[in-house]
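lol so apparently i was supposed to do this last week
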Amino acid sequence: EDGHQLWLRPHQAAPVTVVVAAKNSTLLAMAKQELERNWQGAAGATVTLTLKKDNAIKHDGFRLGPTSVRATTEAGLLYGVFELLRRQQTGQPVADKVFNPSYEYRLLNHWDNPDGSVERGYAGHSIFWRKDSSFVVTAKDKALWQEYARANASVGLNGAVINNVNASPLILSAEYLGRTKAIADVLRPYGVKTFLAVKFSSPVLLGGLKTADPLDPAVKKWWQAKAKEIYQQIPDFGGFLVKASSEGQPGPQDYGRTHADGANMLADAVKPYGGLVMWRAFVYSPNDKDRAKQAYNEFVPLDGKFRDNIIVQVKNGPVDFQPREPFSPLFGALKKTSVMPEFQITQEYLGHSIDLAFLSTMWEECLGSDTYQAGPSSTVARVTDGSVYPQKHTAMAGVANTGLDRNWTGQDFGQANWYAFGRLAWNNQLKSAQIADEWLKQTFTGATSSTASASDWNTNFLAPVTQLMLASREAIVNYSMPLGLHHIMSATHDHYGPGPWWAPPKMRADWTPPYYHQADAQGVGFDRTTGGSNAVSQYHEPLAGQFNNPATCPDEYLLWFHHLPWDFKMKSGRTLWDELALHYDHGVQQVRQFQQVWDKAQPYVDAERFAAVQNKLRAQSGNAVLWKDACLLYFQQFSHLPIPAIVEPPMHTLEGVIANDAVRPRQQPRP
Ligand code: BDP
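anyway here it is w/ beta-D-glucopyranuronic acid bound
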C-alpha cells in the first residue's frame, strides 16, 4: 500500500448497464468506464448519461438522479458520474438535484521547471518535465499523466498550468511545445485543459527581438505568431499565466508600461482562439515601506482597463501564502475586472511534506471572509464567482503539491489538500468537515483490518482523524506564527522551521523576518494602522475601523495590524507576552495529541501508510518544539519577561538553534 491510488481506490463493483444518449467520444467512454468499474448501487441497475439543454445547468454542471446524469457538456457528464460514485461510496443520498461549479475554470498551477525540478515542491521531481531534458514521451509518462488527469476530473478540476510561474523562455520553444502537446493530448479526455506560464521577455530571450515592450508592433507580432503556433498543435489550449514585474521577473514596467498594457497585449494574441490570460497580482518591490499594500496600490487604478479575456490572479493574502493572513484587500475592490483567488496547495510555509496540515480550513476561512465591498455578504467567494460582480470569466487556482513520489504528494495527508482544493473550486461553499470526511472515507476505506467493523471504524478512526485534520492548520499557526505574526520562517532551509532572526547583511529587508515582526524593547508586530503604514485603510468599513483598533481587531490578526507593547492587555486578560507563549505551547501540545490520535488509528490503517504518517508526525512534533523554543527565546531578548510557568521550558538554546539553522543545507536551489 503506497498511497498511489489516492482517493480513487479500486472497488468490488456491482454489475451495471450504462446507456449513453450522446454520440461516442473518448470523454464519454471514460465516464462509462468509471461507472462500470466502480458502481456501488443496486446490482443490475441501468444508468443513463444524457447530453441535453437544461437552463438550470451552468458551465460543466449536471443534474443528478440515483441512476441518471444529465448535462449540457461532456465534461459535465463525467463530473456527474464522479459525484454519483462519490455519493455511493461515502454514504450520501442521491436525490434529484442540480450541481453547478462555482467557477468556470478550476486550475492547478504547477511550479515545475523544464529541468524537472519543482519550485517549492516536496514530493520529488516533476510529473511533466524530465531532468535530462528528454523530450521522449514514454508509455510510463502517459500512464502517469492519465492517472493525474483522472484524479483531477474526479474532483472537478478542469485545467493545469504545467510549468513554473518563474517561467523559462524555453517553454515556448518547439521541443517543449511538442511535449506540451503530448501532455495536452493525455489530459484532454478527462476534460483537463492545458495552459502555460510564460516569461514576459520571451520575445527577446527566445525570439531575438531587441525589446519586449508590449506596445512595440514587432513584439505584438511575435506573440501573435507564437499563439498561432501553439493553437495549431493544441486547438483547445487554455492560455497563458503570467508573473511579470514581480520578484525580479521582467514585465511591462521595464518599459514604462502598466500591467494592463502587458496583459492586454497577450490577451489580444490569444483572443482569436478563445484563450485566456491569467495575470498575477503578486507584485511588490523593496522600495515601499509596506509590502502588504503594494498589489492593491498598483492594481486598483487599473480596474476596468483589462480586456475581457483576462483574469487577475490574486493570492489569498496580501503578503504571501503565510499560515494565516487576512484576505487580500484586492478581493472586492476590483469591481470591473475579473479576479480569481490563488491558493497554495504545496506547503511552502506550512511544513513542506513533513507537517500534517489540512489546508481546507484555511481556504474556507478566506473564501468565507466578508469584504463588505458591495455591502454585507460580499464574501471573497461571492466577489470572485460572479455572484456580486458580472465577471466575464471566473476561476480559482491552486499551486500544486504533486511530484514523482509514489504517493504523489510526499505526505499521505497532502493528498487531502489536492482533493480539498478541487472540491472547493467546484463548490466554494463546501465545509471542510465534509471534505475531510469524504476524503478519509475514500482514501482509507478498504484498508481497514479485517477485524474492525464499520461502526468501529467510524468511531475510532473517522471521527478522531477528522478532528485531527480540522485542527491541523491552527496547530501550525499556533506553534509557528500565532496572533497575526507572519513571515518569520527561516530562509536558510527553504522556509521550513523558525528564523525570526534571519537577516543576512545586504539582504532585501522585505525578505527578512525582522521587517515583519518588528520586535523591539517596546513591543512586537507590524503597525499597519492609520498611524502606521495605513494598509488597514485598504479594507472596506466596517473592517478598516475594526482592524485599526486593537480592542476590536480579532486576535488572529492582532500583530498583523498592530505593534503592541509586551504587556498589552489581551481580551483574555493575559499580557500579550503570556498569550504569545501560551499559543506556542498549545501548538506543541496539539501536535503531541495528533500523535496519540494517530497511534490509536493503527488497527484501521494499512501498515505502510500508518508508519509513514507516524514518522512524519514525530518529525513535526520536533519541529513544533523548535519553533516554540526558538521564537520564545528570540522574542524574550526584547521582552525581558519570563516564560510563564505553565509553558514547557525550552529544551533548546537560542544560540544552538541559530547555529544549527546556519549550517542546514538548502533543500533545493531556487531557479
Ligand atoms: C513565493 C515563493 C516563490 C514563488 C513566489 C510566487 O517563495 O518561490 O516564486 O511565491 O508566487 O511564496 O511567485
